[in-house]
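B., you asked whether I could sanity-check this one before it goes into the benchmark set. Here's the sequence:
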Amino acid sequence: MRQLTLSLTLGFAVLLTAVAPSVDAQDKKTKKGAAKKGAAGSTLKTNRDKASYAIGLQIGQALKRQGLDIDPKLLAAGISDTLSGKKPALSDQQLQAALTAFQQEMQTQQAAKAKAASEKKRRRVRRSWQAMPRKRVSRRPRVACSTRC
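And here's what the prediction gave me:
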C-alpha cells in the first residue's frame, strides 16, 4: 500500500512537471509591471490550466506530507520526458536500483526518527515517575498465628 501511494505520488509529480514549463512560458509573456494574484494567478485562465495547477498542488502537498527529499527540477524533467516521449536519462535497471536505494535511505531515516522519538518518550516517562512522591509503607513482620487471625 505504501509503495502504491509513493508510486502514485511520484506519477502525479511527473505530471506536474509537464505542466510547469507551460506555466513558466505564460509567466514570461505577462507584463513586467502587472501585479500577480498568486503563484500562477494570472496564468490560470482555462479549466485545464486550473485543474493542472490543482493536481500539481496536491502532488506537492503529498510529497511534503511524506517528507520526501527530492529535487523538484529533476522531478519535473522526468515528468516532461515521459509525457513528451523522450528517451529516459536512466535505464530500467538504473531506475529500479535508484528507487530501491532511495526507499532504503528513507526507511533508515524514518527508523532513526522513530528511535529518537521513542527515547524522548522514555526519558519523559522516567522523569515523570521520578517526580512522583513516594509513600512510606511500614512493613510489619509477619507473625505466625496459632489461632485464626
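One thing to flag: The chain has four helices and no strands. Otherwise nothing jumped out at me.
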